[in-house]
Prior knowledge:
This protein is α/β, with parallel strands linked by helices. The protein is 37% helix and 16% strand.
Amino acid sequence: MVAFLFIRALNFYRILIGASIEYLTNPLSEFLIMKKVLVACEESQAVTLAFRERGFEAYSLDIKPCTGGHPEFHIQGDALEYINDTSFDLMIAHPPCTHLACSGARHFQKKIADGRQQQGIDLFMAFTRSKIKHFAIENPVGIMSNLYRKPDQIIQPYFFGDEAVKTTCMWTKNLPNLKPTKIVGKGEIVTFKSGNRMSKWYSDISGLTPEERSTMRSKTFPGIAAAIAQQWGDYIMEKSTYQPDIFDVMNGED
């Protein structure tokens, strides 16, 4: 009996020492945490690179080539082919908002008639049915709050250190709400002769082509990207850490 317990104790310490070595040599290994992240509909790679800086195996995904300078971390293709790939542990999705955002409401009638709005709705809803365990879907204020459901959270760049206004809705699954990291001013606001007001960053891109404006509007502010990678990355790390049960180990179930 003593010999039996001694062998089980040795087995336990063998696993404990092995886990310690694994952590010290590769703290973000699959032994301890999940680490694979998909950032869908992102060509800028802002969120992708924020996760990469924290050691995650993150990939941007878009039908366009990436502009973030790291094509080795970019998947150029159809998001619908990847949103149910459960080899990814976390997905951050930025479905196109052109046909969904309230800012373009004056064009809704035409977009409903020609089917463009329905295409946007269908893509958004496809993300909500993703089989990836943890995900967040980002979009500005628009029709999906009524057609799908109210967002779990609404954030602003100035909650995270960037002096700008860009109201952003977040629909999440198995993720906590983001916590503000550095609340700053709202930045410069431009007032037009009509009385309309908007953030200067938004006004500055008004002279670009519609496609260029769409690309610039879709970029994630650095503070938000950093908060997503840190807070949701840490949350996933915590949920994915492997902790062997001492009783299973002592019973030889390793």
